[in-house]
Amino acid sequence: MIDLNNIRTIIFDLGGVVLDIYPERTVQAFDNLGIRDAASWVGNGHHKALFHDLEVGKISEKVFYDEVRSLVKDKLSTEAIKLAWNAMIGTISLERIGIIERLRATRSVFLLSNTNVIHHKHFDAMAAKYDSLSDLFDKVYYSYEMGLSKPDSAIFQQVLSENQLKPEETLFLDDSTKNIEVAQAMGMQAVLITPNEGMEQLFK
Q1: Last residue within a domain, chosen from 65, 86, 107
Q2: The domain spanning residue 171 has which CATH number?
Q3: Whether residue 13 lies in the annotated active site
Q4: Given 86, 102, 133, which residue is the final one in a domain?
Q5: Which residue in 13, 53, 174, 175 is the catalytic one?
Q6: Which residues of 42-75 are buried (b: 16+ CB within 10 A; e: fewer)?
Q7: Is the CB of residue 12 less than 8 Å from the CB of residue 104?
Q8: Among 27, 79, 91, 155, which residue has the fewest nearby CB atoms (within 10 Å)?
Q9: Environment class of residue 88 by beta-carbon count within 10 Å: exposed (0-12), middle (13-18) or buried (19+)?
Q10: Residues 81, 180: one domain?
Q11: Class of residue 10 by CB neighbours under 10 A (exposed 0-12, middle 13-18, buried 19+)
């Protein structure tokens, strides 16, 4: 059990923690478009190949669409690719928003997400009552803007250093065991979020 009395900052992952996410929906959507290898590229917060390059900002949105188009014989529209790529994004519940708001009243709350510019545009307006998801947090960090991604320890160190955070007073929540292990190795308290043990159970 986490003792929140010793916690001054909470760093949230986005997909699988704050936002429901369904990677299998994107795999199926790409399969429907004739892209058969998507299952080997699309992960739960750890994408590979072309999708990883987009996630760490190595390629632009336009290059991503062009590269995906090159994978099939039939000419795909940008809108069709966008819909398939965004198919994995679910919803943000009002209950989770309320939890973050209550925690923010007494602590700093950050968001640290492996994500990309296309997904960012899609989910940014999904937090009810907020014009932008970033308004729900004191600060947000997105991998494609940083040129880094979890579980690289450098992305965690940047967040800690920029905000002068003490690892032992920082709680990190993520749905990836790899990410949790790195955070713990750096001295942070960390909790693995699962479908059965989500934010709602942790902070009840």
Answers
A1: 86
A2: 3.40.50.1000
A3: yes
A4: 86
A5: 13
A6: beebbbeebbbbbbbbebeeeebbebbbeeeeee
A7: no
A8: 79
A9: buried
A10: no
A11: buried
Domain holding 128, by residue range, is: 4-20+91-202
Task: Please indicate, yes or no, whether residues 105 and 141 belong to a single structural domain of this protein.
Answer: yes
**148: number of Cβ within 10 Å:** 19
Asked whether the beta carbons of 58 and 117 are under 8 A apart, the reply is no
C-alpha dihedral, 168 to 174 to 175 to 176, nearest 10°:
-70
The pLDDT profile of the chain, 204 residues, written as one tens digit per residue, is 677 889 999 999 999 999 999 999 999 999 999 988 777 777 555 556 788 899 999 999 999 999 999 888 878 999 999 999 999 999 999 999 999 999 999 999 999 999 999 999 999 989 988 999 999 999 999 999 999 999 999 999 999 999 999 999 999 999 999 999 999 999 999 999 998 899 999 998
- The owner of tokens 């992305």 is 155
Among residues 147, 155, 126, 166, the alpha carbon closest in space to that of 13 is found at 155
Q: For tokens 């072309």, what's the residue?
A: 50
